[in-house]
Amino acid sequence: MSAEHDWQTLVNIAHAQAVRGISPLRALVAYRNLGALLAERASRQPERPLLLTHEPSGSVRERSYRELHAEARLLAACLHREHGLRRSDRIAIMSGSSADAGRLLLAAWMIGVSIIPAHPDDDDRRIASNLQEARARLLVPDAQHAARAQRIAASVDGMAAPVWLEALTAATEVGSAGYALPAEPARDDEAIIAFVPHADGAAGAVLNHYNLLAVSDAVARWNRWTAFDRIASTLPLLTVAGIVGTLLGPLSAGASTASVRFDPATYWAQISDLGATIAIMLPGQMQVLLELDAAVNPSVPRLRSVICTGGSAQARTAQAFEQRFGCPVQIALGVAEASGWVFQTPLDASAPDRALWFDRDGRAPVGQTLDVNEVSIAGDDGSQSERTGVLLLRGHNVMQGYHQRPDANRSAFTGGWLASGLLGHAHADASGGPVYTIDDSSRPVAERDGVPLSLADVDRALQSIPAVRTGVAVAFDNIYTGVEIGAYVVPEPGVHVEEFAILARCRQQLGHAKSPKVVVFGAEPATDARDLFDRRALQSRFTRYLRTRFSDSDAGAPVEDESL
User: Fold this and answer.
1) 408-437: pLDDT as tens digits
2) Does the predicted TM-score (pTM) go above 0.90?
3) Which residue in 347, 393, 485, 529 is deepest, having the highest Cβ count within 10 Å?
């Protein structure tokens, strides 16, 4: 935390990290750090499988707790000995979801090295800026992103040349055995800096070991995972929710876990081969599976729950999925600033509650809060049975603050709460407890396919086009990606501009994932009380695209039309 923080902000942060009056100094989880969690599990159940890998042949490779602990320890020794990494250093990982990425996370945490996820969908300048701000010492890409990583690392002061993930993990096989690791990190040591979209670019949410221990334990207990569960996740691993749901939650439960590549043609075969009892997926993936030929009737007798997270799920989609595949659907949601997981529908909900949640149009409720959290609604005294407002969060999973951003921390932490930026609606379930539905259409952040994107970045790209007088990015519901990005555009008077040209120019600047997929033209949009464009009011202009499946080609091909 920066010395520039005023005393009141520090007090607000401290209060926001408590839950029901219990300070994080009174830890609800006993482990000293994340490495100690792995070591304890490896000691207690050494031969039980931890990491499952589905091979192309259909076979499943199993790595036991003992094996993965040994591999992570060797890799930690390599990081310390060969690359000079020490406690409080930071490294970035740019990779897809893989077993190697999971091992690197665990190895870094063993020696107190913090992780900065560098998501491949971000542009190179943004990644380089984040790494420069965090003073990352090393960037580790997988082979697919090696060329990009070299360019990025060259633009970051003091950063060493990138080391390929595959080469780094292979190097542990030729040494490091018996190497004495340095002193282990403390519970309050930094574990992750997750850069999230912010009004003026990006801000790094700092999470420590205890934040991740607390939320992972809460997720495992909420879902009643045991050592006999096998979790198959298609979440992007290098997001906070992906790390918790795919790696640390199963580890906390002593369960087995697999990071599964989503391919609708082979998905159910992978689930069957893995013997999965829990599937975790994105909202759009649930919709794609629903559209498989009606003759597809998967045989997955062990599967007892599907958890849908990483975006906004449609209630009718969840209901149709349950009816077709005969497996209960749970909805979960969180924000990186609260360790990626805050809300979830319970597995044992009553039939009246499930009907209340899913037999409806629009978004599915995200359920109740985990017991590691408290939630309040801004400006509400809690006396009403149905309440709407900005959700305020408090709990042991709440971040330490934004890295070197006292201004952002002052606005995020108020009155002893973290302002999530989520607009929520609370209503009572059959038992009278609060259930939350989220409307994030007014936020400057959209979570598309599990990855948070900055609408302000899209605004800037639109406004940089000379033919555009006003350009506003709008996040709208889409059954394939949870949320998709559209552009509301007012052209300059007397100027004709084609939708294709606008989409293509945005894609040049932002890449496919962050770019708008459709343009709606209109008159000057209204502004809200803060004199900002009212994105929520514009959302209705995009409802026709709820069921549209956008392909890569929909964003247009690069053009060099200087008339824009």
Assistant:
1) 999 999 999 999 888 888 887 766 678 888
2) no
3) 485
